[in-house]
UniProtKB/TrEMBL annotation:
PANTHER family, sorted: TRANSCRIPTIONAL REGULATOR-RELATED, TRANSCRIPTIONAL REGULATORY PROTEIN
Lineage top rank: taxon: Bacteria
Cross-referenced InterPro entries: ArsR-like_HTH, HTH_ArsR_DNA-bd_dom, HTH_Metal-responsive_Reg, WH-like_DNA-bd_sf, WH_DNA-bd_sf
Residue span, HTH arsR-type domain: 1-93
Name the record gives this protein: DNA-binding transcriptional ArsR family regulator
Pfam families: HTH_20
GO biological process: response to cadmium ion; response to lead ion
GO terms for MF: cadmium ion sensor activity; DNA binding; DNA-binding transcription factor activity; lead ion binding
Length: 224
C-alpha cells in the first residue's frame, strides 16, 4: 500500500533544518542557498541538498539569475499549510512561557499581513461591512469597493488573476483569521509602498510607522 501524500509532506517539513529554511521564506521574499544555510545554521552543501528535496517535493520554486539561485515558497497554498502547522505547534504543551515576539504584533505571512494587526484589520473590514463572508471565501461589498478605490487599489484587476481573490488564513499567534489572497496581498503592498509599515531585517516582523498609525486609524478605524 502506498503511503498517503501527508507522509511525504511531513517528511519534507519535519526535518529541523528544512523547517527553519521554510520559515525564513514565509515573508514571501526570495533567498539564496547561502542565506538559507545561514538561517538554518548548516553548511551550504547541506543546504543545497535540503533545498533540492524541497524543490522536487513541490514546496519551493527556483529562479536563476546569473550565477545565483533564488528560492521562494512555490505558492500561497504552501504558506497557508505552514501557517496552519504553526498554529498546531503553538497549541502543543511546552515547558516555560513563550517569550514575547514582535512577530505577534505584526508580521508578514507570505505576501499578506498577519499578527495582531492583520487580525484587527480583517475584523475592522468585516465589522464595517466592507467584506462579505461566504464560508471561507470573501468578497468586497459596495462600500468595500469604494474604500479600495479611494485607497487607489485596483480591486477589479485583482479579480482577473488566477490566484484566490480573498480568503481567510488562520493566524498562528492570534488563533483567529487574517485576510489572505490577492486582496490581502494588495493591502500589504499598499501599506509598504505608503510607508505605513516597514519590514524588519532578517525577520517576518513589520513595524507600524507614525504615519501608518494615523492612516490606519483614519481608513480602518483601528485604535492603534
Amino acid at each position: 500500500m502506498d503511503a498517503p501524500p501527508i507522509a511525504s509532506l511531513s517528511a519534507l517539513i519535519g526535518d529541523p533544518a528544512r523547517a527553519l529554511m521554510l520559515s525564513a521564506l514565509m515573508d514571501g521574499r526570495a533567498r539564496t542557498a547561502s542565506e538559507l544555510a545561514d538561517r538554518a545554521g548548516i553548511t551550504r552543501q547541506t543546504a543545497s541538498a535540503h533545498l533540492a528535496k524541497l524543490t522536487d517535493g513541490g514546496l519551493l520554486s527556483l529562479e536563476r539569475q546569473g550565477r545565483h539561485r533564488y528560492f521562494q515558497l512555490r505558492c500561497e497554498e504552501v504558506a497557508s499549510v505552514l501557517e496552519s502547522l504553526m498554529v498546531l505547534g503553538h497549541q502543543l504543551p511546552r515547558g516555560g512561557r513563550e517569550p514575547h515576539s514582535p512577530e505577534r504584533c505584526a508580521r508578514t505571512c507570505y505576501d499578506h499581513l498577519a499578527g495582531r494587526l492583520g487580525v484587527e484589520l480583517l475584523e475592522s473590514l468585516s465589522e464595517r461591512g466592507h467584506l462579505e463572508t461566504r464560508t471561507a471565501q470573501l468578497s468586497l461589498s459596495s462600500s468595500g469597493e469604494d474604500l479600495f478605490e479611494r485607497l487607489g487599489i485596483d480591486w477589479r484587476g485583482l479579480q482577473c488573476g488566477r490566484r484566490n481573490y480573498a480568503r481567510l488564513c488562520l493566524d498562528w499567534s492570534e488563533r483567529r483569521h487574517h485576510l489572505a489572497g490577492a486582496l490581502g496581498a494588495a493591502l500589504l503592498h499598499h501599506f509598504l509602498d505608503s510607508d505605513w509599515i516597514r519590514r524588519q531585517a532578517d525577520s517576518r516582523a513589520v513595524v507600524l510607522t507614525g504615519k501608518g498609525r494615523k492612516a490606519l486609524g483614519h481608513w480602518f478605524d483601528l485604535p492603534l
